[in-house]
Description:
The chain is α/β, with parallel strands linked by helices.
Amino acid sequence: MNRNSVVYMHTSLKSKNWVLITGASSGFGEEFARQYAKQGHALVLVARRLDRLQALAETLRQEHRVEVVVEQVDLSDVGAVVRLQERLRERDIAIDVLINNAGYGLQGPFADAPLEASLSMVQLDIASLTAVTHVFAQEMRKRRRGKILLVASLLAHLGVENFAVYSAAKAYVLRLGEALHRELKPDGITVTALSPGLSDTGFAKAAQMSVTPVLRLLMMQPAPVVRAGIRSLNAGHMSVVPGLANKVMAMFIWGTPRWLHQAVFARVMKAQ
């Protein structure tokens, strides 16, 4: 067994309906783990912070009596993604639901940010997400069943000042999800893109984001966002924007010229 993985077992691994969640150590990933565990699913939790994963796994095992596999993986290394899939296959763990949640964001002027920071964002939010989706979609296609949720962002719907790379990366995630929804449907695989607005997940702090008064009013808690994602995935929807206010903003984006909604969002997101 890989030294960075831990398995909590009560019954046969083969008998479980497995959910793999990337970025599971905090934020949306942690909430996805809690909600799927409550439903009785076995879990594969993936992130870089092993201590956080192990603590969460122990809590879920005790509260919900579910099987949990903990995998410490640096998803920015595409080779590590392939090795993760190989380790799970060796243990006869077939992933039924993939929650592709791991991501990285940073606010600030594009030309002022270190090039390495921007490229790290592209690597994790685009290349690694693509790799995870690809390797597990191949397995699902062989079994003719599976579900994949890609976590995009409301910012995927427009280019936002001081979020240039993140907005562009999440636009890729959204369009990838929409394309794969149709492409993989004949293979029995459901693909849904989730586009949350600002949520209380710790993202704003990690992204060094200025949370304006307007944004604070619009901020959602992780639980309803995750419920909306799971519900839409189970219903076979192509994409979902959770929250009434976020839906209104999405409609505003779709129904107005780019110069207008980009100017409005730049003002909304800029600290006074």
